[in-house]
Design brief:
This protein is of the alpha+beta class and about 240 residues long. It has one domain: Sandwich (Jelly Rolls). The protein has three helices and 15 strands. The strands form three sheets. Strands 3, 6, 8, 9, 10, 12 and 13 form a seven-stranded antiparallel sheet that branches. Strands 2, 4, 5, 7, 11 and 14 form a six-stranded antiparallel sheet that branches. Strands 1-15 form a two-stranded antiparallel sheet. The longest helix has 23 residues. It is globular and about 45 Å long.
């Protein structure tokens, strides 16, 4: 006797409900800034130094921006962690990126410094901001605060002065180096801010859809129950 159609439907629904898509996550972190960083100046004057935060072994990176008084009134630089490299061709297409840092404003006014994740790909620097609200170190001064941006995709990153250009996060994309940017757009002045606990989490779809172990057990029980029902129908 064939299995009743409703049992097939139930089993199909169970399979759809119990199977979950497992995605990999690659984490890049730096709370020390002792090595593996490169500096790329884009505009005006930007300097940096490694400073003690509190404990003897707790360091952060202090960044000073000095935009010119006249146009383009911008001080901007990229800081790239040379060891934070992700290759989509071998590690899988990137589905989203999460970013976080701890920031502190030490001197200046207004937003003090803009900040956020940065991507280096094929010799081009992309930053998070552009048409989106950038992260800022902000006021008041001398207070550490957490900053974050989650679920970022290619369209969230653009070239400075070229918002229509975005990185390639697909499986065909070139290797990517991650970092962060700092910038100030104002008419002169000196702006000082710090960054600590820089974190990038890359989510990809490298893993196929597989049932979780607990789901497999539940699915087995469900299938066994349906099999018992079919046997009873045969005896009847």
């Amino acid at each position: 006797m064939c299995m009743p159609r409703w049992t097939v439907v139930v089993l199909t629904i169970l399979l759809a409900m119990l199977c979950t898509t497992a995605s990999q996550a690659t984490l890049y972190f730096d709370g020390d800034f002792s090595s593996d960083w490169s500096f790329h100046l884009l505009a005006a004057t930007v300097s940096y130094s490694r400073e003690l935060r509190a404990d003897p072994d707790d360091y952060y990176l202090q960044v000073t921006t000095q935009p010119p008084e006249y146009w383009p009134c911008t001080a901007w630089a990229y800081f790239m962690k040379t060891s934070a490299v992700y290759d989509p061709q071998t590690m899988g297409a990137i589905t989203s990126i999460d970013y976080s840092e701890e920031a502190i404003s030490l001197q200046g006014w207004g937003a003090v410094q803009g900040t956020g994740p940065a991507i280096l790909q094929d010799g081009k620097y992309y930053f998070y901001g552009g048409g989106y609200t950038p992260l800022v170190t902000g006021l008041p001064l001398n207070e550490w605060r957490p900053l974050s941006a989650t679920g970022l995709q290619a369209g969230h990153f653009s070239l400075y002065g070229g918002p229509e250009f975005h990185p390639d996060l697909s499986a065909a994309g070139s290797p990517i180096t991650f970092g962060f940017w700092r910038g100030t757009t104002a008419g002169g002045g000196t702006y000082v801010a710090g960054i600590d606990d820089w974190t990038i989490t890359v989510h990809d779809g490298a893993n196929p859809t597989v049932p979780e172990p607990a789901s497999l057990c539940l699915l087995s029980l469900a299938a066994g129950g349906i099999g018992t029902m079919v046997k009873r129908r045969k005896k009847a």
